[in-house]
Specification:
Belongs to the UPF0065 (bug) family. The protein is an alpha/beta fold and 334 residues long. The protein has 12 helices and 9 strands. The radius of gyration is 23 Å and the shape is globular.
């Protein structure tokens, strides 16, 4: 038998595995064909968790597979984010990213940061939210100006809580101390839930949180809101003044929450998920749920929505912005 004849006879056997194996395009076209994990890098009950569950519920309904939320808190959001950054890039592992672990921490942690921006790829921004400065009801202050006066009269006696080192809440507190010239001891927690429990008990006097996770307690009177950190008041809490109205325009901060995936996730999957998230955030019912929590539309595209490319450009801008804030405020990992 000549070599060419042997090759011809062997060809069908060599081709059979390839014919039986699904093509990459076919596999992507069928996505998702099994459950998808959504990692939240903070504890339950915070804004990150709430937003992730709202959108995951809709993704599950629209795509026909479970999108299961899994809380992996630690290191200011870095632990859960690193899990995804180093995870399987097949579309079945997603991250609900935040301004802290998605922008602030790159400067705050420096060489200790376990992942870099290129280790993750942006899928879609879900909401942007104000931060809110609030106090325990037993503290005898009702405005931000009164809090500053109280802190100056009682230097070093107040604690200010956040949901973790490196969060926008931590940095907002540092900005307030810097702009107002006051001393308060930062107390980081492993999420918004434990932090708010301590403020409501009076063991921590002051705190900063994203409005969506704090607004229920504020509306019920369990916490006293002093100011939101956006340029204008939020319709979700219309009687609460801004930090600028209270005399501190430099204390401006907006939290954001969006989906990322491991950096090498196939582009067709990223684009498909991005289109689904864009559609979800524009749904009237979803918009109403997020707005009631104090959330604002992504606003990255001309129609107010989101896309993977627009979210990537936004994240790069945020990394630069918050890097400058960290350096100016002198915030450190405690």
């Amino acid at each position: 038998m000549t070599l060419s004849r042997r090759a011809a006879l062997a060809a069908p056997a060599l081709l059979l595995p390839a014919l039986l194996r699904p093509s990459r395009a076919g596999a992507q076209g069928a996505y998702p064909s099994r459950p998808v994990r959504v990692v939240v890098p903070f504890t339950p009950a915070g804004t990150t968790d709430v937003a992730a569950r709202i959108v995951s519920e809709r993704l599950q309904s629209r795509l026909g597979q479970p999108f299961t939320v899994e809380n992996r808190a630690g290191a200011g959001g870095n632990s859960g984010s690193d899990l995804v950054a180093k995870g399987e890039a097949d579309g079945y592992l997603l991250l609900m990213q935040t301004v802290s672990s998605g922008a602030i921490n790159y400067t705050l942690y420096g060489d200790r940061m376990p992942y870099r921006p290129d280790d993750l790829t942006e899928v879609g921004l879900v909401i942007r939210v104000p931060n809110v400065i609030f106090v325990t009801n037993s503290l005898p202050v009702r405005t931000l100006r009164e809090l500053v006066a109280y802190a100056k009269a009682n230097p070093g006696k107040l604690n200010i809580g956040s949901s973790g080192v490196g969060t926008s809440l931590h940095v907002t507190g540092e900005l307030l101390k810097m702009e107002a010239g006051i001393q308060m001891s930062h107390v980081p927690f492993r999420g918004a839930g434990p932090m708010m429990a301590e403020v409501m008990s009076g063991r921590v006097e002051v705190a900063v949180d994203n409005l969506p996770s704090a607004i229920g307690h504020i509306r019920d009177g369990r916490l006293r809101a002093l100011a939101v950190t956006t340029a204008s008041r939020t319709p979700a809490l219309p009687d609460c003044p801004t930090t600028a109205e209270e005399g501190y325009p430099g204390v401006e901060a907006t939290g954001w929450f969006g989906f990322q995936a491991p950096g090498r996730t196939p582009r067709p999957i990223v684009e498909k998920l991005g289109a689904e998230i864009d559609a979800i955030v524009k749904e009237p019912a979803t918009k109403a749920r997020l707005a009631d929590l104090g959330g604002m539309m992504p606003g990255l595209t001309p129609d107010g929505g989101t896309s993977p490319a627009a979210f990537t450009a936004f994240v790069r801008t945020e990394i630069a912005k918050w890097g400058d804030v960290v350096r100016r405020s002198g915030a450190t990992v405690e």
